Amino acid sequence: MKNENGFTLIEAIAALFIGSLMLMAIYTAVNSAQRTSTGVERRVIAQQDARSVLELIAMEVRMASYNPNSTTGNWLQSGDCTTVSANQNYRGIQEATATSITVEMDINGNCTSKDDPICMRDYTGNLNPNEIIRYNYDAANLYLTRQTQCGGAQPFLGDTVAHEVLNQSKSALVVNNTAGPGNTAIPVFRYYNGSGTEIAAPVTTEIPNIRRIEITLVVDTSTVDPVSGTRRRIIYSTSVIPRNHIPAPTY
User: Fold this and answer.
1) 172-218 pLDDT, tens per residue?
2) Residues 220-236, buried b or exposed e (16+ Cβ, 10 A)?
3) What is the C-alpha to C-alpha distance for residues 177 and 186, in angstroms, rounded to an integer?
């Protein structure tokens, strides 16, 4: 009698079951790898954005009180950019709080004498670009803004509206405040005098004594990590010595 080889129904079902398990395992591994890759990519983008922002803030804060003519000049009120500040000893730092800072500089060196009435402005009476810069942390909405020449504050890091206009997703949330995810309570700006003692913010009369400014950004990825189910947190910090911020000279 001829022996015919083949599969029984039970063997076929068992083979299908084993094959399904293998396909499911492969799919799970590929999907997990893709999710991990997406999470890493989002974290890298958030890191790059936060680092770039911190470097720019540090560079501009370092220029506070820059004046190539070394004259007293007329530093302006940061609120309107036209009125001369009542306290010229504040010089290039007219605002110093835990969440905001305003720095001023005379980039083009228009002050020709200590009595020049248009210091920080060109000879048509207009401010030169980027001579007054304000950074502000919106603790309620978890983003940072940058403002120049007392104009409108522009989204800088973590702003939702700006990214929606561009039809993009924001990379990070700035969560220095106590209301943010993780309940952090880290000031964006901290101020120190020449002996290294911290000056309590907001700083007013002691602004001339500021010798070092510590800037810290606590940033969460704007989207939840697909693997861990939580936001990834990054903390960047740097110290800046405003090289031009010294007590106003007397003549």
Assistant:
1) 888 887 544 455 688 999 999 989 999 999 999 999 999 999 999 99
2) bbbbebeeeeebbbbee
3) 7
**Domain layout of the chain by residue ranges:** 9-240
CB 63 within 8 A of CB 103: yes
Contact present, 116 and 76 (Cβ < 8 Å): no
Pairing outcome for strands 198-199 and 93-96: unpaired
Do 106 and 68 touch, CB atoms closer than 8 A?
yes
Query: Is the full-model pTM beyond 0.85?
Result: no
User: Cα separation of 206 and 247, whole Å?
Assistant: 11
Cβ atoms < 10 Å from Cβ of 63: 20
Evaluate whether 103 touches 64 at the Cβ level (below 8 Å). yes
Residue 107: exposure state from Cβ atoms within 10 A (0-12, 13-18, ≥19): middle
